[in-house]
């Protein structure tokens, strides 16, 4: 996609003033780095980072039948949520293939908010609309795509709670996956305690016209505590260390949540939802391949997406493929995620990754790949 056809977030000028390198991602011009990926990554692990995630989409649902409708669309069980709570969930096809992974929040008795991936926004919206029109016309609900009106940012890291209280004093009281609408000097925002880095943190959704003000109110005083602006490059290395899936990599329409290791986000005790029959069968019968985390155990270049994975049992047989790979700034060696035959998915299993026509030894590890010492 040409640069002049890419959309800009409300924070675009702020990023360029901070010296960000901008790249195309999901149809948007987004900052990939400011000072450098490794520096921003380590700042998030040790202090805090502030990310623009305005490319994400926001769908708002309201009405007496919203819970019934969304519970038929999504794999997790929204009925478990009290107002002010959220959960990770997935949108699947009838065959169990993943359309998107997302966060669902119950804002009130009837109001719900879905946060969806930028690259899947239009696909998600059209799928949900089609299901509404084809199967659920009689249900009473309103659905609105608010993505064009709203900006979002993520404040992540061990010092995030100390920083956010300067703007939202009540935010530190939020527990994991809770959300609240909170006022700040200049407006109001939805503030949730969640993230995509493996650290404590918050995600904030705010009207576009208040985005620059909120960014500045967080970044300027936060810098004294080590807060840095962070780009998509660090967001990707952080989520890989945490073992989190990314749509288009670990998740596609050809993979199921069971294969991806996301069975905990599937509520098979619900009476019905799209994809349930396939997922229930996979949970009972097992699957032929699974998503793994792995670490390189010898000196090598970093593993990358689409590199082939081989058995290290003497057969030399190809058993899978890397879906995400990088040099881990926290660990100092190559790590990645990928799919392998189930027989080779157990943590501790030796495997080989083909890098530049040579095979290098690696080992399957539990996710998260990086765990902070207690």
TrEMBL record:
Catalyzed reactions per annotation: N(6)-[(R)-S(8)-aminomethyldihydrolipoyl]-L-lysyl-[protein] + (6S)-5,6,7,8-tetrahydrofolate = N(6)-[(R)-dihydrolipoyl]-L-lysyl-[protein] + (6R)-5,10-methylene-5,6,7,8-tetrahydrofolate + NH4(+)
Name of the featured protein: aminomethyltransferase
Gene3D superfamilies in the record: Probable tRNA modification gtpase trme, domain 1
A Gene Ontology BP annotation from the UniProt entry: glycine catabolic process
PANTHER family reported for this sequence: AMINOMETHYLTRANSFERASE, AMINOMETHYLTRANSFERASE, MITOCHONDRIAL
GCVT N-terminal domain residues: 11-270
Aminomethyltransferase C-terminal domain ranges (all copies): 289-370
Lineage per the UniProt record: unclassified sequences, metagenomes, ecological metagenomes
Gene Ontology terms: cellular component: glycine cleavage complex
InterPro entries: GcvT, GcvT/YgfZ/DmdA, GcvT/YgfZ_C, GcvT_bac, GcvT_C, GCVT_N, TrmE/GcvT-like
Organism: marine metagenome
Family: Belongs to the GcvT family.
Swiss-Prot/TrEMBL keywords: Aminotransferase, Transferase
Enzyme Commission number(s) of this protein: 2.1.2.10
